[in-house]
Amino acid sequence: MFASETPLALPSSPFIRAAGMSLDTLPIAWCEFDQHHWHAELHQAWQLPLPASLQSAVTKRKAEHLASRWLVQQNFAHFGLPHFVLCNAPDRSPLWPAGIQASLSHTHSVAVMAATREPLCVGVDVEQIMAEETADETAEMLMSPAEKQRLLARPMPFAQAATLLFSLKESVYKALWPQLHQPMDFLQAEVLELDVQQGRATLRLCQDFDEYFTTKALLQARFWLAGDRVITLLTHPLPTK
C-alpha cells in the first residue's frame, strides 16, 4: 500500500487478507478484507461485538464494521490499549480514548486509520477512484471553477484528480468535526495547491467557522495514489485553550 511500511500480524481467518502500517511520521494503519469470508462468529472470536443497529444490515456493511474495528484494535495495541473496542457517539462519530486523536475510513475492501497522542486534528480518508462520468457529473458540487482548472492542469486523469479532491475535503471534515461539530459542504474548503510528485496538498477554509478555524488558516495534507484508490491524511494543530 505504502512505499515504506511494516506488516501487521494477520488472524487465521482469510477474512483479513493483508494489513500493514506506514512508517511515516504519523503512521497510517490499513487492512484489506474479503466480505465473502465474513461470518458472525468472527465478532465473538475477536471480541468485537456487532452493534444491534447492524444486526439486520447487509453483509457488506457488517464486513466493513468488523474489518475497521479489527484494524483499530491492532493499531491501538501500539498505544498500550490492546483490547480497545471502538464505539460511536449518538451523532455516529467515533469515540476515541482520552488523549488520542484518530480518524478512520473504509471503502470497498479496504480500511485505513490514523492515530496520535500529539495535539493534532486528524482526518484520514480512502476512496475508490470514481468513474469519469461521475467526476464530470459531480464536479460542480465538489469544486469551484478555480479548483477545476487547477485539477485539469495536473498530470493525472480528471476522475483521479476529482476523487483526490473529494477525499481531501472528506479528511478536512473528519479532522475538524471533533472541534466544530458543524456540517460542512464541499465548497466550504478549497484546494489551493497539489504537488503530485511529493503527495502533498494545501487547503483553506472558505468561511470563518470560529475564531481559530478561519479563512486565514492553511491546512496541510498528505496523499497517496495507490492503484485504483486514493488515501488522504490531514493534520492540523489543535486549538490552544
TrEMBL record:
4'-phosphopantetheinyl transferase domain residues: 122-208
GO molecular function: transferase activity
Function field: Involved in the biosynthesis of the siderophore enterobactin (enterochelin), which is a macrocyclic trimeric lactone of N-(2,3-dihydroxybenzoyl)-serine. The serine trilactone serves as a scaffolding for the three catechol functionalities that provide hexadentate coordination for the tightly ligated iron(2+) atoms.
Gene3D superfamilies from the UniProt entry: 4'-phosphopantetheinyl transferase domain
Functional pathway: Siderophore biosynthesis; enterobactin biosynthesis
Family recorded in the similarity comment: Belongs to the P-Pant transferase superfamily. EntD family.
Superkingdom of the organism of origin: Bacteria
Keywords noted in UniProt: Enterobactin biosynthesis, Transferase
Domain 4'-phosphopantetheinyl transferase N-terminal: 54-115
InterPro entries listed in its UniProt record: 4-PPantetheinyl_Trfase_dom, 4-PPantetheinyl_Trfase_dom_sf, 4PPT_N, Enbac_synth_compD-like
Protein name as it appears in the record: Enterobactin synthase component D
Annotated Pfam families: 4PPT_N (PF17837), ACPS (PF01648)
Xref: PANTHER family: ENTEROBACTIN SYNTHASE COMPONENT D (PTHR38096)
